[in-house]
Design a protein that fits this description.
alpha/beta, 7-stranded mixed beta sheet, 17 strands, 35% helix, 18% strand
Length: 396
């Protein structure tokens, strides 16, 4: 047999973590790595948060899964908390970000088609976005590397330049159902939408009776310094997809919507076997216990500001490697002048520092939200050592 037991769709590196310790991971060889990747923005409470562990253990010993054929006191509780904390009136729980986005797409279409507007099915999306790996979510993205091998794409998506209100307005037509956008593009290079852009999309949606769908799978759940990033713009969406940090490491996602936006999501319109299972709900409630707190959010903003300031000062020492820093809260990106994957590997293999590459030649920095000044200092020390020792030829 030539194929590996794990389907070889990931270029897995040599680091093999076996244990987590707060903001560090420990490999098979016992070496400790500072984790500023956090499972790609998932492990927002780190790897050994007592409250999250205890909630999952307690629920696992009580009830893990029953299906959605029955009432769900656990799901009702978490949904009510999310409704109370956000713009939303209703929530559908999923197992992943891609499923949450799929539900958001269906909800936006159903809003129109439930009312008889069957021709309104198209979502205007934005270039360099990443919405997931299902057929619908790769079709919603304009990236050829995600399309290759899976053609034909699904109909119903039109791509416009990110942060371009005029382009979005020009793209609206008789088939348009709404806009779908990440307020902060994660995979696309930690690119932050402007206030004018977000307000412009809200205005266009209101003028044309369209749905404004936000994909906050990566930038949501306190990562940007507010519970959801849309709060920083003074606009509210009609529909929002969330995942990653909401489970703190347990697979969980959700689609949030207003009552008006969800008018087409009636009995039988959507479903999930595992979505909203009691074990996931326990994890989600434990995460909210920790992060849905003004003091916690203020700390994320403060840590983010300090880390960003350190990075901005640092990159001036290596103008041949770095161009600029962008992001909000603890979703930050250092745009590089070289392709970043070689540098990410160098930091990991030689300095025990875990980061993530992103589009637009960006070094993505998404640590657990529970880092303190000591972790920021350790990060900067390791980053400095890595930049000083890096030879771009290593990327070859």
């Amino acid at each position: 047999m030539s194929i590996t037991p794990l389907m070889p769709v990931y270029p897995r590196c040599g680091f093999r973590p076996v244990r987590g310790d707060h903001c560090h991971l420990v490999g098979e060889d016992g070496r400790r790595y500072l984790d500023f990747a956090a499972g790609i923005a998932v492990n927002i409470l780190g790897h050994s948060h007592a409250g999250l562990i205890e909630a999952i253990q307690r629920q696992a010993a009580t009830l893990m899964h029953v299906s959605n054929l029955y009432g769900s006191p656990q799901g009702e509780h978490l949904a009510q908390r999310l409704v109370d904390l956000t713009f939303a009136d209703t929530v559908f729980f999923t197992n992943s970000g891609a499923e949450a986005v799929e539900c958001a797409i269906k909800t936006a279409r159903a809003y129109h088609q439930h009312a008889g507007d069957d021709h309104r099915y198209e979502l205007i999306t934005f270039k360099n976005a990443f919405h997931g790996r299902t057929m619908a979510t790769i079709s919603a993205s304009n990236q050829d590397k995600m399309h290759k091998g899976f053609l034909p794409l699904l109909r119903g998506f039109k791509y416009v330049d990110f942060d371009d209100v005029a382009g979005a307005a020009a793209a609206v037509g008789p088939n348009t159902a709404g806009f779908m956008v990440e307020p902060i593009q994660g995979e696309g290079g930690v690119r932050v939408a402007s206030e004018a852009f977000m307000h412009g999309l809200r205005r266009l949606a209101d003028e044309h009776d369209l749905m404004l769908v936000l994909d906050e799978v990566q930038c949501g759940v306190a990562r940007s310094g507010t519970f959801y990033a849309y709060e920083q713009y003074g606009v509210e969406p009609d529909i929002l997809a969330t995942a990653k940090g909401i489970g703190g490491g347990f697979p969980l996602g959700a689609c949030l919507a207003t009552e008006r936006a969800a008018r087409g999501m009636v009995f039988g319109a959507h479903g999930s076997t595992y979505g909203g299972n009691p074990l996931a709900m326990a994890a989600g409630n434990a995460v909210l216990d920790a992060v849905a707190d003004d003091e916690f959010l203020a700390a994320v903003r403060a840590r983010g500001e300090r880390l960003k300031a350190c990075l901005e000062q640092f990159i001036g020492n290596y103008p041949e490697l770095f161009e600029l820093v962008r992001g909000r809260g603890l979703i930050l990106g250092a745009k590089m002048r070289i392709e970043p994957r070689g540098f990410v590997a160098h930091l990991r293999d030689n300095h025990q520092l875990l980061t993530v590459s992103a589009g637009d030649n960006t070094l993505r920095i998404v640590p657990p939200l529970v880092i303190d000044d000591s972790h920021i200092d350790e990060f900067m020390d390791k980053l400095s050592a890595g930049a000083a020792s890096y030879q771009p030829a290593e990327a070859a």
